Amino acid sequence: MVNLEWFRTFKAIYETGSLTSAANKLYISQPGVSLHLNSLEAHVGNKLFDRGTRKMLPTEYGNMLYNSIVDAVKKLEEAEGHFYRNADSGRPSISIGMCFETFQYVLEPFISELPFNLITKFGVYQDMLNDLDKGLLDFVISPQKDEVFNIQYTPFSKEKLILIAGSKSDLSGFREAVNVRNAEAAEDWLNKQAWFGTTGDMEHLRNFWIHNFKKRPNFKPNYIVPNMSSIIRCISDKEGFAVIPDFLCRKQLEEGNIQLVWEGFTPIENTLYFVQRKKTIYKKELALLQDIFLKHMTIDVKDQILLLQDTGR
């Protein structure tokens, strides 16, 4: 199936004469432009441009395709702009990606106050970073970092992966094994407990297990629920085990509804990054989003952010 973004990218290349200019016009990376063009050429089965010394020269088939789609693409762009602006002609639309719990715990209370339209995507971090590089997202919060020239990563906080349990879970056998640093006994005890996980996501549990026991867990969670917020509600004042980031359950730990079981033989900390393209027309809007997170999440690297801003990086 053809992706309509391929036509938009093709039109930009045709009109600007280069991959770089098309990337700047669309605010996506040059590799993203190349990917769209290669995908479209593979789909239509014909070469659309000859690469000249200074510009991309459309082939005869490229000219035919441009004449066939240019009016339709313009109409789609006009419709898109009208739809996103809605009743306010000056109101931009921002597309962001992050994990569901980060959105729910931090950003959700402020949505109605934002002076711009917001479209939020939840999913696998790598997929969201790829969408950012392709221009499908404007802003991502991620613990993962790729070396991509067009993308800017700004550290702003840290999360610690911890093992938690419901307040009624008996931990005596586990405490004995951990106190003498008997990893084999501790793992054996944990394998016998009732575990909670989230749909399609074993990353936290897997990383915690590999870090402490040097291998992947050899079990699947007993209960699969939609998200980590559901896990916390399910085990609060009950029994059950899970591995989740610490910032998601601070309140429940303080209230005694759940208990901290273990931080591991050595704690696992992930740096969280603000991720955006280096060239963006939404600097003001993204700065507002960043400010919300800086004020409402634990800030372990705020001085580094200020340094980056001062040096213009």
Automatic annotation (TrEMBL):
PROSITE patterns: HTH_LYSR (PS50931). Keywords: DNA-binding, Transcription, Transcription regulation. The keyword Transcription regulation applies. Residues 2-59 form the HTH lysR-type domain. Pfam families: HTH_1, LysR_substrate. Belongs to the LysR transcriptional regulatory family. PANTHER family: HTH-TYPE TRANSCRIPTIONAL REGULATOR, HTH-TYPE TRANSCRIPTIONAL REGULATOR GLTR. This is LysR family transcriptional regulator. It comes from Dysgonomonas termitidis.
